[in-house]
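Q: How would the structure tokens look for this protein?
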Amino acid sequence: MTFIQANLWQWQSWNVAWNQAISEKNSTNHFSTVLVHGFGACKEHWRNNQLILAQSIPCYAIDLIGFGESSQPESRLIDEDKETNNFIYCFDSWGSQLADFCIEVVKKPVLLIGNSIGGVVSLKAAHLLQENCIGVTLINCAQRQMDDKRLIQQPKWMHWTRPYLKSLVRNRWLSKSLFRNAAQPSVIRQVLKKAYPTGNNVDDSLINILQKPSQRPGASEAFRGFINLFDDHLAPDLMSTLDIPVNLIWGECDPWEPLEEAQEWANSIQCIRSLNIIPKAGHCPHDESPEKVNEVLIKIIQDAK
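A: Here is the predicted structure in token form.
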């Protein structure tokens, strides 16, 4: 029998929600898998994967700070004063959360599996975990095209408007307004139609999974923190110094993270072992085409054993 058990873990001063999929078959494995969601998602976004993977290996899913059922503290930008209850929403913070979770809760070497920004978080955590991380699988990893380090690749008008944009998005009145609009079920459904080009598994359950955490009092703070990340880690930089295997899984029709860049990564970054393309899928192929993605993940897990 395989089932999911919900848990809470105290990290620093914050509550972290996590699930463990438990199966009697896999209790003797020497490593575990940890699933890391993308921006605006949560541990339940692995609804079509965790139980399947747990038949082969212990499988955990975690809510990053600011998302799901984890704490949603007030955001602090880099140049703002530190207070007791504020938090810098960035890849260093989330990476530390994930690494500490693996050390204190999982207590085994881990294979990290991350979607979108969860991929960048996983890469950062892998650096912190060192030998306690045996590999990373990136599912449509965030390419972070709005980062200042990528500005040279953007049109000239973006160079000119960037200072104004940075000044504007600092304001809570704006971030809260944008977030309230984005958190409407009708808007979530429209975004999902773009993110899931085939429309597979875009259902009321998914809308509820994504909308429920957005109704909590501090939900807009992670949004404010994230839209102010103009100078943070890029996946290729993190991978350039990794000596563990990295595998890529990519939805062919991702509207935000182009497949062409993933192919360039696969051809130029030494630690990348494979690129599996999921036909017709978009930004979240693990949920849109779970049978195909689970098959790839199970092979990666078997190869790591």
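The domain at 2-304 is CATH 3.40.50.1820 (Rossmann fold).

The chain has a mean pLDDT of 94.

Upvote if useful.
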